[in-house]
Amino acid sequence: MDKMIAYCGLNCGKCDAYLATFNNDQALREKTAKLWSELNQTLILPEDINCEGCRADGKKTVFCESLCGIRHCAMEKGVTTCGDCPEMEGCPTLGMITSNNSEARENLKG
Description:
globular, 110 residues
């Protein structure tokens, strides 16, 4: 499976944190930090917006590295993505992503 597909099925290649890192785009880092701060009701600084992909080697955002329950669960189970997990269909944590994002669901099935 493409390394840019996260454990949850989201495409890291489309993520603003990845794009800001890949393109060294400070304006996008600032915009993303502001939006993510508002969405998560916490302070996220532009310097926190550096990520090379959930399953790729390299930098991760603080959320992806430390706080993402999906990523931690998949790594603990040793699956490539949640699509390889026998509990995927009934997983309430993954459902928070796939119920709102049909592309993520399709990425996990593909």
